[in-house]
Amino acid sequence: xxxxxxxxxxxxxxxxxxxxxxxxxxxxxxxxxxxxxxxxxxxxxxxxxxxxxxxxxxxxxxxxxxxxxxxxxxxxxxxxxxxxxxxxxxxxxxxxxxxxxxxxxxxxxxxxxxxxxxxxxxxxxxxxxxxxxxxxxxxxxxxxxxxxxxxxxxxxxxxxxxxxxxxxxxxxxxxxxxxxxxxxxxxxxxxxxxxxxxxxxxxxxxxxxx
Length: 210
Description:
8-stranded antiparallel β-sheet; Jelly Rolls; mainly beta; 15 strands
């Protein structure tokens, strides 16, 4: 009995990262403190504890701070109709441009690639799934299933530990790959550019890993 208890305790200790910092909110629910818009367009409003993005061209709102190894969580609600978005992470910022890793938020009910890993402005669909590779696309859909709620709020979780990149959608592990293209960068939220559409975000928080 003691041996089994000891093994269980050791397993629990290993599963909890002792090097994790406390959760830190990235959005205070009232202001956009800690965020900036590197684009010359795009409207940002804070409404009832939510960030609302509206625009006529694609743009990203990015954190002022960069992050390396971390666990990020955030909620997103897509508008009705044609819509697409994403959470950028370890991303890079230039004037009127953001590029790098993106956790896909797919509004296409047939494609169902929400939770995929997209490389914005570079390799595009290079890993999870590989676009055009039928086996890779089928494997991704099998992993993701129907985890994404097209007409409601969705919770994303992104875990970055060195080369390990994991994306969860509503608790379902959709992407689990290794890639060393980027070691750190900003977090960003996206408006895809559909005129008049409003993308909504809330409960953005991060836990840095040391």
